[in-house]
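Bench log. Compound arrived from synthesis this morning; before running ITC I wanted a structural hypothesis for how BJW sits in the protein. Inputs:
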Amino acid sequence: MRLSPLTKKMTALAKAVEWLANAQRLVVFTGAGVSAESGIPTFRDQLTGLWAKFDPAQLATATAFRNDPALVWGWYEWRRAQVAKALPNAAHVAIAASARHVPELVVVTQNVDDLHERAGSNDVIHLHGSLQVARCFACARPHPLAQCPSTGVEASRLEPPRCTHCNGKIRPGVVWFGEDLPETALRTAFKSARNADLLLSVGTSGLVYPAACIPEIARENGARVVHINTEPADTKDATTLTGRAGEWLPKLLDAACGTDPGN
Ligand code: BJW
Ligand code: ZN
């Protein structure tokens, strides 16, 4: 029997609701799409993604920083300013609220913003670092950043500050291509995925490794996997809710836990 798209959508929602209602160990794995409705651009969306406008090789690698530190530092300070102005959206709020209804919740994010924390999630695992921290490119010592970024302009070059110990240049505390992910964060994220009985993968293209292994690790270890994404996923092993995270997540939580995530 062929199911209409609407029936498929309802079946996917019904499954996801039942799984969430019964979940004991939930992992919510997020990517840039979860912050899109807060006005933070994703990376790979064709028109609005950062990589549609900027070349990752010139901005998101250690070589790029070595070649032109002012370009890279200015770009990251511009992004930090964007995040500082943004507010958590309904998806971040619903994820934080789900902690009150599921015995164990681990939030694993690839995002470098702090919108999960500002929505009330605790102990968020940041696989790709954070815009709010910085360290010396030479000696790796942490370097405190002013709360308010010094630039809000997209393409403005800005000389990075200098390390107070060795005078090295200060770099953003994010994980660039070709760099290792923070060891403890990755180990804890993989362990949580192995232990999960439900994994919600929200707003990620699943193209960047090793983070992209996480839904697969959960599935191989017996967890149900639900993808929430504006683009339909071409995966046969998981349930997909196609649409905006800020619409699906509150609905899902309300239906599974009988709650308005705002409360
Ligand atoms: C919505 C929505 C809404 C929109 N609701 N949904 C070949 C050559 C070189 C390297 C490699 C290679 N093959 C593999 C590698 C390794 C590389 C990699 O995976 N590359 C692939 C791109 C091919 N990985 C690494 O280099 C990692 N390190 C590593 O592997 O170390 C070992 C090593 C050592 C030496 C050499 C090689 C390997 C490090 C990866 C670091 C990633 N860093 C970035 C930048 C962080 C800093 C910054 O912010 O600038 O992390 S890249 C960027 O991608 C960022 C993200 O966290 C990451 C993932 O992106 P994400 O979150 O999935 O965003 P998008 O835009 O891709 O997707 C958004 C989704 O949301 C879309 O699906 C939309 O449809 C959806 N959406 N609105 C719901 N409202
Ligand atoms: Zn230093």
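What the model suggests: The chain has eleven helices and nine strands. The mean pLDDT is 93.
ITC booked for Thursday regardless.
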